[in-house]
Amino acid sequence: MTQQNVPGVDPQIQALTDQFRRDYRAVAAEIGKIIVGHESIIDGVLTCLFVGGHALLEGVPGLGKTALIRALADALNLKFNRIQFTPDLMPADVIGTNVIMENTQGQRAFQFMAGPIFSQIVLADEINRATPKTQSALLEAMQEKQVTAGGAIRKLEEPFFVMATQNPLEQEGTYPLPEAQLDRFFFKLIVQYSGRAELKTILDRTTTNYKVEIKPVIDGARIMAHQQLIKRVVIAPHVQDYAIRCTLGTHPQGIFATPMVNQFLRVGASPRAAQAITLASKVRALLDGRFHVSFQDIKDVAIAAMRHRVILNFEGEAEGITTDMVLEKLIAETPTTMEGEVEAGASVAAGRR
Question: Which of 10, 119, 126, 201 has the CB geometry, 3.0–4.6 Å to 79, for a possible disulfide?
Fold first, then answer.
């Protein structure tokens, strides 16, 4: 159903916004044919898709992480490749390599054989089972959307997304992702166990003759058009400043840091966190039928945008603190208004005295 025109909004922009919501819901509905529950994870993955970011899904094996991304790929009219990361996987297995080829005249020459990274949506399955050397093969592709190989820079076809899954880092046979790689993921999404009713539906679908066909509902051109629309959503200066202060609040001993941040964090979030919060909050606004970002939009997306960009110190790890705990406390204690900021600063100063 098309939303009624909002007074003061260009009808063309209104039509583009309605189309975005229809496309978003259409992709979510196709994924829902396969994936039971996990609505927040689906929302997170679709947010990454429509802002041009990369998603990292973490959870124990068997929770449907790979199935979700495969369902997403089936719902998009894009080129799709899957890379199974293993300890013996080499960078050339990801980006490709030069091989000697012989033509019909018997002449030999080097020819570049493209790797599976040359796609539009790439599933990096169990990414943390490969060594950091191999994981680093994705860095240039994820940031610059290009690959340098064989002495040449090779552009990747846009839109380009890396959707990665990983097992919890404490499991055997896994390697922690380098901080530079983690920072390139737009969101880190934690996949939890299914509930009783959800598990029943999963069994009904997978242990019977239940069959479903996922159809492509959107192409690359429309995705890129939606990405441009999302950037046009308005964010007021004081709302933007709230996102900035939430990001700076993760910096230990910084001016906006909370006591819990100072006690348990070793490294704070990068500017990419503020970028991710801003873009994701614009998606939330459009889905809610608004053309401006609210404080609640920022609160809804901040943890997924920052949980993988902050690092606990030794005390935090020893006490079993998680980054989510620290970030939840930070968001709750960061005032939304400058007046509140002044009052919070006065309270902290009074406490020090």
Answer: 119
